[in-house]
Amino acid sequence: MARINLLPHRAATRKQRERDFFVQLAITAAAAIGFMVLWNIWMGMRVDNQNERNAYLQDQIKQVDARLTKINDLENVRAQLLARKQIIEQLQANRSQMVHLFDELVKTVPGSARLTSIKQAGDQMTLGGVAQSNASVAQYMRNIEASPWMGPTDLSKTENSHDATRMPYSFGLTVALQRPKQDDGSGPGASPAASSSTGSSMNAPVNTTAPQTNQAMPTTNSQAPNPSGAPVKGGAKS
């Protein structure tokens, strides 16, 4: 005889499946919630770490900016000191320039001319004066150009006042200043005493040679025959 199960086994199986589904869903939801919590904690730790690094970098940047500010201040001070040093070197180099210029002005002015004004602007000097003629002005310009401390000369004006004075011509000159070449070892900063001593030592052989020539001339004249037959005083004895 066949046995027939009349119990609702299908409903029981469906309920069991539903319970398993909800259990799996709860486990999945719990796992997802746990993962999200852990992910938030990990991201928070990374954000905190990055904020600490950013704060450290900001602090280092501030320190570097402070050092750069000090360096810029030191560079400005260095530039100012270098500018002062250059000015001092220029003053040291030009210390004796005015002495030599006035000496050369005295030497180059001819007797037929006279200066009335002197003005210097940088490496140029403007001279004004009076002269007897244009030839005197030309001679003065040649003397200036031959000077080691003054260079090319430009004639700005020359005019005749047609008055009864001894120097009726007025002139204006623009002179370019220069430095002598350092061939003889004397630099632009050499003292006037050294220059004068050098000049005196250079002129010494000329002064020594001149008396020897003057002494040799009377000896030659004393040995020359006397056409008149008169005895010569101080002559050599025969």
Question: How would you describe the overall organization of this protein?
Answer:
- Helices cover 59% and strands 16% of the residues.
- It is an alpha+beta fold and 238 residues long.
- Among the domains are: 14-108; 112-177, 2-Layer Sandwich (Alpha-Beta Plaits), CATH 3.30.70.2830.
- The N and C termini lie far apart (201 Å).
- Residues 183-238 have low confidence and may be disordered.
- The chain crosses the membrane at residues 21-42.
- Keywords: Coiled coil, Membrane, Transmembrane, Transmembrane helix.
**How would you describe the shape?**
rod-shaped
Number of helices: 4
Mean pLDDT: 76
Strand order in the sheet with the most strands: 1-2-4-3
Low-confidence stretches: 183-238
Residues in helix, %: 55-70%
Structure characteristics:
4 helices; 238 residues; 4-stranded antiparallel beta sheet; disordered C terminus; Alpha-Beta Plaits; 4 strands; alpha+beta
Secondary structure elements and pairings:
Elements: H1 9-93, H2 97-108, E1 113-121, E2 124-131, H3 134-145, E3 150-160, E4 169-177, H4 192-223
